[in-house]
Amino acid sequence: MAEIRITQTQRALNDLQVQREAEIFVFDDESDAVLVRRWQRGDLAAASVAIQRHEAMVYAATFRLLRNHALSEDVSQDAFLRAHERIADLRQPASFPGWVRRIAVRLATDELRRRPSAELTDDEPDLSPGPEATFETLDALERFRLQLAALPAAQRAVVVMRDVEGFSIQETAEQLGITPAAVKMRLSRARQSLASLRSVEAGDRS
Q1: Count of domains forming the chain
Q2: What single-letter DSSP state applies at residue 162?
Q3: Which has the closest alpha carbon to 32: 119, 78, 90?
Q4: Distance between CA atoms of residues 190 and 162, nearest Å
Q5: What residue numbers bound the domain in which 155 lies?
Q6: CB-CB neighbours of 164 under 10 Å
Q7: Residues 144 and 99 in one domain
Q8: pTM
């Protein structure tokens, strides 16, 4: 009898595991809006799928600013933790990708303000997709990332926040702790530097 009970218990546990795996499989095909609504109701399986779906995008957003692999991973984890703490406040569940990316960018800019540039040593270029993936070719996308990495940290931050992540001048200024006028000046210089880099590369290819 004891052996039968153990077998039945094991079968029940196996059935529960299969059910959970099936639920996660179903969740993987759900939209972000559905996943976030389930997350808001306390469904951690849905939360896990939502996080896994967007972790590469969040990491890429932080790396574009910090250029440091370990620090970008830490900031990405913090961003998802913040998202979990505030998920009930997200009124438009379908906007989750942009919302969590903006959280990550704000945390990354906090790190830029706190740390001397010497601590943010450059790592290998990140190759994961991001908002600028509308470039026509992978070659053009990689050139853009290398050009971005060549900018000073202060200029790179305003370009990423304004031209890649879509923050307003005022939001960028608030996050970086500078004036809107300073944002405009840095952005102008950064765009001029990027244009110069493109001209040099075009000359090298001709």
Answers
A1: 2
A2: I
A3: 90
A4: 11
A5: 131-206
A6: 19
A7: no
A8: 0.64
Predicted pLDDT of residue 83: 95
Q: Which residues contact 103 (CB under 8 A, 6 or more apart)?
A: 79, 82, 83
Query: Which tokens go with 202?
Result: 């075009």
Task: State whether 139 and 206 are in the same domain.
Answer: yes
93's CB contacts (< 8 A; 6+ apart) are: 32, 33, 34, 35, 36, 37, 40
DSSP 64-81: HHH--HHHHHHHHHHHHH
Distance CA 169, CA 190 (A): 14
Which residues make Cβ contacts (< 8 Å) with residue 37, sequence separation at least 6?
Answer: 93
Provide φ and ψ at 123, rounded to 5°: -105, -175
Q: What CA–CA distance (Å, rounded) separates 63 from 108?
A: 8
Query: Mean pLDDT, 10 residues at a time, over the chain (206 residues)?
Result: 46 50 54 93 91 92 87 93 95 92 90 65 48 52 78 87 85 86 92 84 65
